[in-house]
Fold this sequence. Notes:
The protein is mainly alpha-helical and 245 residues long. 69% of the residues lie in helices and 4% in strands.
Amino acid sequence: MNSLLKVDNELNIKVDAFRQRITGEAENLVASFFPNKLLELDHFLKEIHSEINLAVPDPILLSNLHDGLEVNAKKRKMEDGTGEDKVAGTKVFIMPSGMMKSNAKLVDLIEKVKPEIRTLIEKCNTVKMWVQLLIPRIEDGNNFGVSIQEETVAELRTVEGEAASYLDQISGYYITRAKLVSKIAKYPHVEDYRRTVTEIDEKKYISLKVIVSELRNQYVTLHDMILKNIDKIKKPRSSNAEALY
């Protein structure tokens, strides 16, 4: 029996230490990290040029099989049973200039934005845990402060979800662009495919600017919301009400 109590006491000490660590980290995030980060992102947003020069990819020149490409000389063919003309693509084994690289400017910008997204998710998770640990046991009445805590947790969870969706958008961009580049390799004679790559790159560039702006705004919103309600978040029930139970 004594050994069990000893184990319980040791676990309680470790849990209390964890709570204190989360409390210290979260309070520092709200008081210092959030305002500093929003200013940093605001500066970063201003550094992103309003325009970016994205050239249309050069057409793929096809000559013969020795260049690594097999060309179907018959450009149009009749499908059996349909009677409709169809443009035949090029069977691609290797690109003349080697690997078709990603847009270097966008890749560089993406690699700067992704750590900011991950940071927001991690910091929101810490603050969310802190607020959840401050929520008192369920009781009847005097739950206005608890509702503020729950709304704060809900807002933090929403921000986490939105930030995670930004990462999905980035991976989706690479997949979409890769499919389009494959079309360019297969149909090098279609100029619209090449121009569409530029359109996708420009759209992603604008999207990245919007993401940075949203990250900054989320830090502003969270900082403002938590500071305005800090008393209720830390102490959701008054001492007089607690004495009644």
